[in-house]
């Protein structure tokens, strides 16, 4: 079992954060385009349970290479971060897996599309995300294999946040999907009220 210890923070200056990450020892890994399709169903309400099921397609902008992974994320394990159990595996054909899920009653919701730059330092991954419709975010994560290591991992992440000029109070526990769905709902509400 993997436990993903993760935080997310909205950033104003992507280039400045990138330079700051490099100054404290993070190394650029790769830049990809990720498209996440999340699922819900009548027999398992992921949103109400605080869980997630998704298929992620990862494209290398420099080549035609494309991979897909299926991921289940459990409910959040604390009140301050996005830490949760994560089960993930690569799938040979993302389209076929999508079709299987839909044929057995899972319904796709709006896609989340982002350009993501991965950086690494020791056991920590930093992701600089430009999310379509939302803007720039930084995610910091450490994968642990036991509950006991979770507190230590969160402390490591907090130290990096502070080095970048942020604190845990600046972070959000809201997923990109939830942000986009709220934005879409607010837009529809505004349209129905004649704001557009």
Jot down its keywords.
196 residues; alpha+beta; 8-stranded antiparallel β-barrel; 9 strands; 41% strand; globular; disordered C terminus
Topology:
Blueprint: E1 2-10, H1 14-23, E2 27-40, H2 46-49, E3 52-59, E4 66-76, E5 84-91, H3 94-103, E6 107-108, E7 112-121, E8 124-131, E9 135-144, H4 148-163, H5 176-192
Antiparallel strand pairs: 1-5, 1-9, 2-3, 2-6, 2-7, 3-4, 4-5, 7-8, 8-9
In short:
This protein is an alpha+beta fold and 196 residues long. It contains five helices and nine strands.
Describe the fold and architecture.
- The structure is a single chain.
- With 196 residues, the protein is of the alpha+beta class.
- The protein is 29% helix and 41% strand.
- The chain has helices at residues 14-23, 46-49, 94-103, 148-163, 176-192, and strands spanning 2-10, 27-40, 52-59, 66-76, 84-91, 107-108, 112-121, 124-131, 135-144.
- Strands 1-5-4-3-2-7-8-9 form an eight-stranded antiparallel barrel, surrounded by four helices.
- A hairpin with a 3-residue loop joins strand 8 (124-131) and strand 9.
- The longest helix has 17 residues, at 176-192.
- The chain is globular.
- The protein starts with a strand and ends with a helix.
- Residues 190-196 have low confidence and may be disordered.
């Amino acid at each position: 079992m993997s436990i993903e210890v993760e935080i997310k923070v909205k950033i104003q200056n992507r280039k400045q954060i990138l330079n700051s990450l490099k100054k404290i020892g993070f190394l650029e890994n790769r830049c990809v385009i990720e498209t996440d399709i999340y699922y819900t169903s009548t027999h398992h309400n992921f949103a109400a349970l605080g869980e997630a099921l998704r298929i992620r397609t990862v494209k290398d902008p420099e080549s035609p290479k494309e991979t897909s992974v299926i991921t289940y994320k459990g409910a959040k394990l604390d009140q301050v971060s996005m830490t949760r159990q994560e089960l993930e595996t690569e799938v040979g054909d993302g389209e076929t897996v999508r079709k299987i899920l839909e044929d057995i009653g899972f319904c796709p919701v709006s896609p989340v599309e982002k350009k993501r730059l991965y950086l690494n330092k020791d056991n920590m991954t930093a992701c600089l995300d430009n999310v379509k419709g939302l803007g720039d975010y930084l995610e910091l994560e450490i994968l642990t294999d036991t509950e006991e290591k979770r507190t230590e991992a969160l402390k490591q992440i907090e130290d990096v946040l502070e080095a970048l000029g942020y604190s845990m109070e600046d972070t959000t526990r809201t997923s990109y999907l939830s942000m986009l769905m709220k934005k879409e709902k607010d837009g529809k509400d505004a349209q129905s009220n004649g704001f557009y």
